[in-house]
UniProtKB/TrEMBL annotation:
One of its GO terms (molecular function) is peptide deformylase activity. One of its GO terms (biological process) is translation. It comes from Aphanomyces astaci. It is an enzyme of class 3 (hydrolase). This is Peptide deformylase.
Length: 228
């Protein structure tokens, strides 16, 4: 009988990088610049899998525990019905789920900079995969001028983003500076932080909560915010 050979199991990037949640130090740490674009390629691949699974509109490095300045941003918004019904009728929320079978595609945005912002701002609901099940109203510039590097090393300069894409870019860039949408909620709104509901495939009302959040009530979450 021959000697049994044990092969080391290959660890996939998606298994190494998982979503982190409110209370994790990575979400409150200012990220450093990306020096080598190719080094983050496996992380980007894993993040695309994660954000695609959740049908999110964006995901930043710190949300998977990587404090480097890059994030994913949805390339185009699929046409379909907004599942939450809480945002503008023409577009989903930043954490929105769209009732559409079209796979989302994402662009990697590396070392992003906002060169200028429009004076005009809009208010809309935002949410976050690292704080699932909640949304708040946040004011953002309607139009921004940005510069960043792509995953293949190309420098994109003075690109103009408007409306939802501008909002996603600003939201994800905040993550790189240790800022969450919770820090920018408009407190003048009657219910500044609301619980989000969506319809499941069986049309039953279900909270969008991860297991870590299921046992926490509103006061527990408020304490996390206070501690941050």
């Amino acid at each position: 009988m021959g000697r049994k050979v044990f092969r080391k199991k290959k660890v996939r990037a998606v298994d190494m990088h998982r979503l982190v949640y409110l209370g994790n130090a990575a979400l409150r740490t200012v990220s450093r610049d990306v020096k080598d674009v190719m080094q983050i390629a496996p992380v980007v691949k894993a993040m695309k899998s994660i954000v695609g699974e959740h049908q999110g509109l964006g995901l930043a490095g710190p949300q998977v525990g990587v404090n480097q300045r890059f994030f994913l941003m949805i390339e185009s918004i699929p046409q379909g019905n907004v599942a939450f019904g809480l945002c503008n009728a023409s577009s989903p929320c930043i954490c929105g789920v769209v009732d559409d079978d079209t796979p989302f595609t994402y662009e990697a945005v590396i070392n992003p900079v906002i060169n200028s912002k429009s004076a005009a701002v809009t208010k809309d609901f935002e949410g976050c995969l690292s704080f699932p099940g909640y949304q708040g109203v946040v004011s953002r510039a309607e139009v921004i001028d940005v510069t960043y590097t792509t995953l293949d090393g190309r420098k994109i300069e003075n690109r103009t983003l408007a409306n939802l894409h501008a909002r996603v870019f600003q939201h994800e860039l905040d993550h790189l500076d240790g800022v969450m949408f919770l820090d920018k909620i408009d407190m003048s709104v009657r219910s500044p932080l609301i619980v989000v509901w969506r319809r499941s495939l069986l049309h039953r009302q279900t909270l969008i909560h991860d297991d870590e959040f299921r046992s926490r009530d509103y006061l527990d979450l408020q304490m996390l915010l206070k501690d941050d």
